[in-house]
Every structure is written in C-alpha cells, then in structure tokens.
Amino acid sequence: MNTSSNTDPFVIAGKTYSSRLLVGTGKYKNFAETRAAIEMSGAEIVTVAIRRTNIGQNPNEPNLLDVLPPSKFTILPNTAGCFDADNAVRTLRLARELLDGHDLVKLEVLGDQKTLFPNMSETLKAAETLVKDGFKVMVYCSDDPIAAKQLEEIGCVAVMPLASLIGSGMGILNPWNLQIIIDQAKVPIVVDAGVGTASDAAIAMELGCHGVLMNTAIATAGNPVLMASAMKKAVDAGREAFLAGRMPKKPYAASASSPTGGLIGKP
Question: Are 150 and 173 a contacting pair, CB within 8 Å?
Fold first, then answer.
C-alpha cells in the first residue's frame, strides 16, 4: 500500500508533511545526539521549549538552530514550563520575533509541577488569544472530548491530547476517549505525551490518530538513535494498519483460516 504524502497526506496548517512523527529536542546528552536521533526518526516537525532552549535569545550560548536549521526542519516553539495563559502568550510572541514571524506554535499550559497535567481553563484562554493574534496553534490538552472540540472551534490547527502524563512512558491509558476525540474532529489529532515505546506509538496510529509527538521516549532510551528508528517504523506501521482496517475481534475462531476442502480423508 502506498501511504506517501500524495495518497495519504498529513497536513498541518496547510502544509503537507511526509512524516507523522513529531519529536522534541530536550533531555538529550548533547546537541550531537539530538541531531543524530532526530535525523534517524525522519521527523520534519521539531518542537523546542523556548523557556529552556536557546534559539537565539542567548547569543553567547550554543544555538539549537545551528544543529537543526529551519531550512531543513519545521521548528515548533512550545510553551513548556508555562503555568498560566499570560506567560504562554508572552513566550510565543517572543518565539515569533526570534524566528522572523514564524506563526506555527505548540501551546501547553500546565496545571502543576508534579504531574504536568494541562490546565484546561488557562489553555482555552491562551488559545483564544493566540488564534486572534494570528498564530497557528497546535495545542496540548487533556483527553477530554469536550475540551478538544472547544479548542478546535476556537481555531486551533491541531489538537494534541495526552496519552498519559508527560514523561511517564505509561502509554495510552484511555483509548476510548481518544477514539471519541478522533471521531468528532475536523482537524488533525496528534497524541502528545506518555508514549514510552514503539508499541504505544503504533497503537495511537491504529486508533486513527494523525500523528504522534514524543520526546522523553526517544531521548532517555538506552540508545536514543536506535529508539528513534523504532518509533519511525512504529508510526508508519500503525498508520498502514489503520488504513488497511483490522480484522474483527472474535472470542474464538468460528472458521479455519485455511480452506478445508480437498484435504486427505475429506470429500
């Protein structure tokens, strides 16, 4: 089956991407490992925590953009570390200045330091402000179908529900809510947070998610470059399985998978 961008396009804010795997840039040992893992992942969209990573705001420090140039990657500035709408909006306005008017951003407004669960009231407030300000907002949110629909109606270009808590590696804890979100959405749904290994990514894609964003699962693996390769394959395989359509689940097989006619001793 041909699942290229021509026959199965992955479109974010009007631009088509060939990879449905989005990756973060934090927690790697150094920039060299960051670059090697991201190149192996095949990802084209790379998210960057503006409050934690230098992309030009600190001229005397190493600049991530020298390693991951915007000419090759779509840089997705995010608001990791923001706990209210005002700080999130301020952070992304700074990112737009640093990136010469770049308007595709990832919004996340966190609720507390321990769980990093999203604060949905502040997320909705920030999303509304950013959309009105001309940003194309991809938004991290809880797996609440009502909140996800509200974010879409505000004008977010992609909704990004968690699979489980950020950095937990617990995988998809509530596939039923994700399925509802996917079924009712008219914008791409990208699972964000909680993926721990390749099978988690494949399950997300088999459910019908349009993409998966991850950082910790790759960056903190024993071999990040090898895990990046595994995640690339898992996302591709999960998408193909979704498009193919799985067989129905049965409590037992009512018929053999191979023909029985013509067997020795059978008429």
Answer: no
Angle between the 120-132 and 145-154 helix axes, to the nearest 10 degrees?
A: 20
Q: How far apart are the first and last CA of the chain?
A: 38
Structure tokens at 22: 């989005």
Count of C-beta atoms within a 10 Å radius of residue 209: 29
Side-chain-facing half-sphere of 188: CA atoms under 13 Å: 28
What pTM did the predictor assign? 0.89
The predicted-structure confidence for 7-40, as pLDDT tens digits, reads as follows 889 999 999 999 999 999 989 999 999 999 999 9
Partners of residue 47 on adjacent β-strands: 24, 76
Annotated catalytic sites, by residue?
A: 106
User: Closest by alpha carbon to 88, among 59, 110, 60?
Assistant: 110
Is residue 78 a contact partner of residue 95, using CB atoms and an 8 Å limit?
no
